[in-house]
Amino acid sequence: MVEVDGIPVLLIRHRGEVFAVAARCPHMGAPLKSGRITEDGYLVCPWHRSAFSLRTGDVAQWTPWPPGVGKVLGALRREHALPVYPVQVDKGRIWIGMP
Ligand code: FES
Is the separation of the CB atoms in 42 and 50 below 8 Å? Predict the structure, then answer.
């Protein structure tokens, strides 16, 4: 995890590409550094297992965990995409485009 302009950003290398995403889940703020990456490029939140595209931040699943309770928790906060930031790797340096 790095901090860019005061914003915590998670850097992830997946299948040879580097992605920069918000370090906290947009649902209830879980630390996504403890999340898991799926083979097909989704970051899964460690708390309620929402899944977000590393490339676009789009939601693939919203709070499916734990069964039954996850749906109630998901209703507490409207579905939000994960902020993702453009990345450029140049001569061993990583440049992150912040809004
Ligand atoms: S905090 Fe991430 S899905 Fe609830």
Answer: no
Cα–Cα distance, 24 to 66 (Å, whole number):
19
Strand partners, 88: 95
Cα-to-centroid distance, 50 and ligand 1 (Å): 6
Buried b (16+ CB within 10 A) or exposed e, 55-77: eebebebbbebeeeebeebbeee
- Name the stretches of the chain with pLDDT < 50: none
Supply the CATH classification number for the domain 2-96. 2.102.10.10
Atom of ligand 1 nearest to the CA of 73: 4
Pocket test for ligand 1, best of 24, 27, 76, 80 (most atoms within 8 A of CB): 27
Strand 84-85 vs strand 59-61: parallel, antiparallel, or unpaired?
unpaired
pTM (2 d.p.): 0.95
